[in-house]
Write a structure and sequence with these properties.
two-stranded antiparallel ribbon; 21 helices; globular; two-stranded antiparallel sheet; about 500 residues
């Protein structure tokens, strides 16, 4: 890398140090121990991490950063990345029109893309600060298994965040595994971090996830053994063992390694058949879907969330973009699109994702999946990983070798969406291609509003068409440009 790039990176990283500490201060102003009076404007890292609570606070700060509009609170959640999936019908006069057209060079899109890049790397840097300290900490300072849990969470989050950057800013392996991946940052320092290939970077992600899984198993195995009554609902808000296992399955599937993808997806599928699973994650209960009051409906199927974020200002976000208040900026499918997604003409209109996931507001029906409803206990939660996905992954891995099992897995999800096998069975004679099409249809139905999962499905397969877009996709659609500053001065390319 040239001298100009090295100087740029050192200046940027050195500047980031102050910014990150300031960011952390904003997160933790209620924690007096986090603040240092000498000098008054800075935080002493060694003091912060001299106690167990400092590590927990650091993780809280990372999760809080992830809930902001810069990340999963909007841009990487219901907003920019999800617009790329083309399940919304975007108003041509609204702010999302450029993203809808895959116009990444327009000023508004360029700013959003730059914000996603910088915010995600900022969160990764905070993971690395924690990891640098915990790897040199005295394990006896921590209660229970928190040394392992905090270590595992930080490693897992680092991998999870890099994976999302890869899904946005690099080619999928099916497109070009030797193309540059995103910089995989494992240390908080002023050293320049170069780019490895897509395949090499994905292996780094898998390596971190494997280590994280070993650490997070301490908490999970203890919770299901020695402490069987631990509160798993709280753990949904953390990157837990199950989240790590699912991310491994997703990463391997992204890499085209169906053998390992099936291994980890099947582990989660098998958990659903164990008694222990009832203490963790369960399919939404049919009685909940019979509720008539919207504040009693669990429209996001929260009992199925494996990893979720709590977004405290969600009322201002969800009820703006998913209701008539959003006007030209509303994010919702048109009625014709909804009927196509949920195969209404095929008689599948009893699907709970259709009957409970949409509601009238003014003259139009809007996606009500993530509405904030007064008096509801399901407010402020946004899923990043859910338990239906390992069923889809396993089905895709089985489609050629065990098609009957693939069909059974898809039917399990459909059964828990109000489409019983008795009344709405899938044919037992589906070909591998037909099974893949059923998986595709499930992604359209299941992940509306969920951080671009359908877009990533298209990209993973290097699909020649994105339904709802007139533009034929290719690298210019599937790979977001690295922000111009990092291209010019950092030497990065994709």
């Amino acid at each position: 890398m040239n001298t100009k790039a090295i100087i740029y990176n050192k200046v940027m990283n050195a500047g980031m140090a102050s910014c990150l500490l300031l960011l952390a201060t904003c997160f933790f102003t209620s924690c007096n121990d986090w603040l240092d009076v000498n000098p008054k404007s800075q935080i002493k890292e060694e003091d912060h991490f001299s106690r167990e609570g400092g590590y927990k606070d650091q993780l809280t700060g990372i999760y809080t950063a992830m809930t902001t509009k810069s990340m999963y609170g909007l841009n990487m959640g219901i907003g920019f990345t999800e617009v790329l999936s083309h399940t919304y019908n975007i108003d041509p006069n609204g702010n999302w029109r450029y993203a809808n057209d895959f116009n990444y060079t327009e000023a508004m899109s360029e700013n959003t893309i730059s914000t996603i890049w910088s915010s995600t790397y900022s969160a990764i840097a905070n993971c690395n600060i924690l990891l640098r300290n915990i790897e040199n900490a005295d394990p006896n300072m921590f209660t229970d298994y928190n040394y392992h849990v905090f270590h595992g969470e930080a490693l897992g989050l680092r991998a999870f965040l890099h994976f999302d950057l890869m899904r946005l800013f690099a080619c999928a392996p099916s497109m070009n595994g030797t193309a540059p991946g995103v910089p995989y940052v494992t240390e908080y320092s002023t050293e320049v971090v170069g780019q490895k290939s897509v395949n090499e970077t994905m292996q780094l992600i898998v390596n971190d996830l494997m280590k994280a899984r070993e650490e997070l198993a301490y908490d999970t195995l203890t919770a299901t053994g020695e402490y069987p009554n631990k509160d798993f609902d709280f753990k949904r808000n953390n990157f837990n063992y199950f989240a790590c296992t699912l991310t491994l399955a997703k990463a391997y599937l992204w890499m085209g390694d169906t053998q390992n993808a099936l291994r980890y997806a099947k582990e989660l599928v098998d958990w659903t058949e164990s008694d222990i699973w009832d203490h963790c994650f369960t399919w939404v209960h049919y009685t909940n879907m019979q509720q008539t009051a919207r504040n009693q409906l669990d429209t996001s199927f929260s009992t199925e969330h494996i990893f979720q974020l709590r977004i405290n200002d969600w009322e201002d976000i969800g009820n703006y973009y998913f209701m008539s208040e959003g006007g030209a900026n509303a994010l919702t499918p048109a009625e014709a699109t909804v009927e196509d997604i949920y195969e209404i003409s095929m008689g599948l209109g009893g699907d709970w994702r259709y009957t409970k996931g949409f509601e009238q507001d003014g003259e139009k029906r809007y996606s009500a999946k993530f509405w904030y409803v007064a008096g509801s206990s399901y407010n402020n939660i946004y899923p990043l990983l859910r338990m239906s996905e390992p069923f889809y992954i396993a089905a895709e891995c089985y489609k050629n070798t065990n098609p009957k099992e693939a069909i059974r897995l898809l039917q399990v999800v459909r059964e828990n969406r109000g489409l019983s096998a008795d009344n709405f069975p899938l044919s037992e004679n589906l070909t591998a291609e037909q099974i893949q099409n059923e998986i595709y249809k499930e992604y359209r139905k299941e992940f509306i509003g969920e951080h671009g999962e359908l877009f990533f499905y298209y990209k993973r397969l290097n699909a020649a068409e994105i339904k709802g877009s007139a533009l034929r996709p290719g690298k210019g659609v599937y790979v977001l440009p690295i922000p111009s500053n990092d291209q010019e001065f950092g030497g990065y390319s994709n």
